[in-house]
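Could you join me in thinking about how sequence relates to backbone shape in a protein? Label the sequence line and the structure token line clearly, so we can match residues to local backbone shapes. Once you have written the record down, we can walk along the chain together.
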Amino acid sequence: MAGHSKWANIQHRKNAQDAKRGKLFTRLIREITVASRINGGDPSSNPRLRLVMDKALTSNMPRDTIERAIKRGIGLVDCMEYEEICYEGYGPGGVAVMVDTMTDNRNRTVAEVRHVFSKHGGNLGTTGSVAFNFTEQGVLSYPAGCNEEHIMEVAINVGANDMLSYPDGSVDILTSSADFSRVQNALQAVGLAPETAEVTQRAISEITLNLEEARQMVKMLDLLEDLEDTQSVYSNADILDEILGKL
């Protein structure tokens, strides 16, 4: 079990607590459509689709909206052709940043992403330039006030890799991407359903930023997340609690 910073806690939960529901729904609909197009519309045989459907239902997306997105994905309804592109680059202080996008206009998206990087002290890199700084992991999150010891005991027994505890009392269970669904199902089976659950990219090592670098980094990440075609943004920034309090 490892402790973790307030910044990491905020960053990990940001997408799950996105107040802009329209933006969140747009991201989920695109992901459902693409997942269905690639691997079919049956969630029982399409783990990627099943995962995003669970996330959509948790976010209170209506089932008929989910079903329409699946139909678009498998070609029963006309829809735009979305392309998945991951942009990689460096932010203030040499922080590694990855931006997952789904777009129907590659030229528009790369121009918007490059503009945000350049405006806030970063630069867009080539494919593979920062991806080695991250590893794909499953993350199951529990809110403050949860039974930390019980969750840890069950999680480790069913094959979780680690548990991170935060200053506010919330915890994250970490799994490999391959074990994610099995661990989630095992926890739910004993009444320990997570508040949020996702397969994400976690930084292998982090870069600590000073106040000015942190100020630029937060602005840059916010703008990248607000771009129309952005699905997820990952970085290996570490902002100390005393600096975070000044922002």
